[in-house]
Specification:
- The structure is a homodimer.
- By secondary structure, chain A is mainly beta.
- Among the domains of chain A are: 170 residues, Sulfite Oxidase, Chain A, domain 2 (Alpha-Beta Complex); 121 residues, Immunoglobulin-like (Sandwich), CATH 2.60.40.
- Chain A has 7 helices and 29 strands.
- In chain A, the strands form 8 sheets. Chain A has a 5-stranded mixed beta sheet with strand order 10-9-18-13-14.
- In chain A, a hairpin with a 6-residue loop joins strand 13 and strand 14.
- The longest helix of chain A is centred in the middle third of the chain and has 8 residues.
- Chain A is globular, with a radius of gyration of 25 Å.
- The interface between A and B is large, with 154 and 154 residues.
- Strand 3 of chain A pairs antiparallel with strand 10 of chain B, so a sheet runs across the interface.
Chain lengths: 432, 432
């Protein structure tokens, strides 16, 4: 039979729930194309397959054996464009970041090979048999742990996002380029199931002295990347993470161990963790003074503003993920908050004039990515679509204009403003 | 400073909750080794790092820049043993299976590269631009879908296990080798976040005729692997899955699309799905008659026993994951049920004489792997450890002996008996 003709979308069920075609979350579409082939059974690779009154040609893949087993799989060759993006810093090739292609992904878990990277002097090669974690400073008993010792501790698994403080910075500044993908704007964000040991267990073992109220965490990379973390957070849900999505953490994610500081600025999740020092007050390392502090309108800097605000973006449609003619689409994207669970994501298709509640994917895990979805019947007219997230603390994602009034021009750390996408009459999507 | 000496475990908190050293789930251990180095600051790569009153040598990884960014990451070279295992079938290299190394993993998500494989004639190479899905048979409107058409449909994400009907078969039969890893026994089991379209949406679109009560699902592989699925299940939570853990499904998992039939026998989750035929009654394909049916004691075969029973195993300790001297360990493993959520996992360290409840990892997702954990103070004496899972339907995992009375000798499909591990006085663990 001939290949199907151009997809036709002819019918949508459900009444609009907000302006410009947003539909009830249970709307259906009709995307299949009718077909009718010649009658007769099909014989494939010498095997007569099940009775098939309407002939369907066997594709080439059924006519010869496929390839055998592999010890460790990789994506299909036709998915070669689904990769992390990065700009090579020629003077310091290990400094910079690579970004997760959220416009090409779906779901909430980021595959390990596509988790964003942020390195300050490259990815170190560490032999886990030689690696040691030190806990010292204002403790009763300075301790050192080998990997073998740590493997005997009680562990815990938690699905959590990690987001760089600089994520979405491009959207915060005056530049805000119209032709930039979700990957380019929001790609310093990923979500995994992390497994490891509550840091509180190890700190308790060392014995916390009364004057300790912060910790310093330092990586074994050539930048000695170091951040201060409030002791209260270190004793709460902070994890010494050893596994990511089931397997040992990848080298670029801190192998053999990193901190997971749920909901807090990305680089507090110190990779290649080699020591934790208990301190009185924060240490004011280079990584929290020269960077990762926020310039205010009066010229002072805000330091240690650590929890990511509630945030969301639409990934489909977005720049590079265009519409191919009027009809039904699913608007879908990601929402998250450093303060806990997402409770609501509203979507607008008329530039914020009206809003409808999107469906939230289950389970809704605190401090993890939540996928939202809503059907949309696009009329073929120009439109601006956007999403607005709310978390269980009642925080609501602000508009870009509101967010920007709080900071000096050009300050892009910790941006969580609403992302607007303009859809042209031809279906091209741009950042506005 | 010198490397730490042999790990010492000197103190355990908490009273036993069951025989032979099972402890309350909040028990702690002391695995750190005291250290004291020379006083003085440390200079790393020309940068004077934070005040460090107890000298800790900088490891080699801090003395030279690391490697730069990568478009798609891979595990550390020192994790090269964490791979799928398989035996090459020389006459039919694409026929057989490869297994997930659960004894070396932790958490509940299986990384895509390590998801088990079961192929009947190899992994086909499919161009998604050419691939078509047909829905035909007892329908009002036979339909064909391209990938582009499917990408416009409403999607859904769900974390679910997939398990081969033959998983753990080695434990069911008289052979039951004592030296076999969790990977070798239970490795035809994996768990992912799957994203795709409810099959019900597409079947509704085709229009289900009144006499249809089963579907036939066929893959585009050279075995035309085909299974019958009750229409009721196809209209319930069955998904046409396009993404696995965020990215496009891997070739060996059915790229570009597969069925996800939550909780049901693995090969109903037909990979490389190319057609669905609505039928009256099951089709009795070769893949559900010559295989994947269960021989009963009276010589008849049980067909279409599709839902996996409640099941669990301990992964740490297990064969190949030995104990290194008396003291505290975490007993940890996986539990799951084809009928819904896991509600309880009990652990015994005295060969079933007494049992204690393990902690269950959150979120507990229906028809997904649940990680259980319990601290254990091993005395250094011989012991037999085992786990027993219960699901929300009240199903309780049976012993091996009870399970075997229902089937003919040698029948190993759909085995869900309790897994026992013997620990010798030297800490070696074997399957019993």
């Amino acid at each position: 039979m001939p290949p199907p003709k151009e997809t036709e979308f002819t019918e949508a069920l459900g009444e609009p729930v907000a302006g410009n075609g947003l539909l009830h979350r249970r709307a259906f579409l009709r995307g299949g194309v009718l077909f009718a082939g010649a009658a007769g059974a099909v014989s494939v690779a010498g095997v007569s397959i099940a009775a098939n009154p309407i002939g369907i040609d066997a594709p080439p893949s059924m006519l010869a054996p496929g390839r055998p087993f592999s010890p460790y799989g990789s994506p299909a060759a036709t998915e070669a464009a689904v990769i992390r993006s990065f700009t090579l810093n020629e003077r310091a090739p290990g400094t910079g970041s690579s970004r997760t292609p959220h416009h090409l992904l779906n779901g909430t878990i980021t595959p390990n090979g596509l988790h964003f990277e942020r390195h300050h002097n490259g990815v170190p090669t560490i032999d886990p048999a030689e690696h040691r974690l030190y806990i010292h400073g204002l403790v009763d008993r300075p301790l050192v742990f080998s990997m073998d010792a740590l493997m005997r501790y009680p562990m815990e698994s938690m699905i959590r996002f990690v987001e760089c403080a600089g994520n979405s910075g491009a959207a915060a500044t005056a530049l805000n380029p119209p032709r930039n993908t979700v990957q380019g704007i929001h790609g310093l964000l990923s979500c995994s199931e992390w497994t490891g040991i509550r840091l509180a267990v190890l700190l308790d073992e060392a014995g916390i002295q009364p004057d300790a109220n912060w910790i310093l965490a330092e990586g074994a990379d050539a930048a000695a990347m170091s951040r201060s973390i409030p002791l209260e957070k270190a004793m709460d849900d902070t994890l010494l993470a050893l596994y990511q999505n089931g397997e040992a953490i990848r080298p670029e994610q801190g192998y053999p161990m990193r901190l997971l500081v749920p909901g807090f600025q990305g680089n507090l999740n110190v990779k290649w963790l080699r020591r934790i020092e208990l301190t009185n007050g924060p240490t004011h390392t280079k990584d929290e003074t020269s960077k990762y502090s926020e310039l205010m309108p009066d010229g002072t800097a805000r330091q240690f503003w650590l929890e990511h605000g509630v945030k969301s973006f639409i990934a489909r449609p977005s720049y590079g993920v265009n519409l191919s003619g009027p009809g039904l689409y699913e608007i879908s994207g990601l929402a998250w908050s450093g303060y806990g669970r997402i409770t609501r994501v509203e979507v607008s298709a008329d530039n914020g004039a009206s809003w409808a509640d999107a469906a939230l994917g289950e389970p809704i895990v605190p401090k993890a990515l939540t996928r939202f979805r809503l059907p949309w019947e696009w009329s073929g007219q120009e439109a601006v679509v956007m999403s607005r997230a709310t978390d269980e603390r009642g925080n609501v994602q602000p508009t870009r204009d509101v967010w920007r009034t709080d900071f000096a021009p050009g300050q892009g750390y910790m941006y969580n403003g609403i992302q607007n996408w303009a859809v042209s009459a031809t279906g091209e999507v741009t950042n506005v």
